[in-house]
Amino acid sequence: MSRFSLISARLSLGALALLAVSSGAARAQTPSPADLAARRSLCAQSVSLSGLEGDMDKQINEAVEETYDRLIAVSPPGDAAVTAYRDALSGALLAAKAPIIGKLVEACALTFTKLELEDINRFYVSSSGKAWLEKGRVIMLPVLEKAVYDVAPQVAADVERRFCAKVDCAPAKASPPSPRKDRTL
Fold this sequence. Notes:
The structure is a single chain. The chain is built from six helices and no strands. By secondary structure, the chain is mainly alpha-helical. It is extended and about 55 Å long.
């Protein structure tokens, strides 16, 4: 997994989290305890139907294996510490998944009404919803990754320009980005 894949994965999860915790004006009225429990259940179902957990597992596995590959390349042959680190990293990332999803479910339950969640879940199980989820991953994630890659130099230059404006320095001259060999769109 490339650095930009990790960035796009974080942006995707961040966008989903941002959607779930949108402004107080967009939140549903404070639900009763029974209604909140029903919403939590519907949100957990939405997360499951959306494939978010599977996406997280895939991203975790790819990040762990990429880290392992980098470490094995610079370590002495048979270094048990590399495998131990990979296993520790995997365990820690997988353990972090449940609290992240729990917070997402809670924010979702406070944001959406029961009716909205029922409609969302009906959509996810419909043929159109399944197509959206399946094709969306195939089409949108690569487009998002490429978009992040394409704007990264401009964002970095903008950050440097803004930083230099605050601390009175001169931005470095930009070098052209290296061509991507691994992905095309």
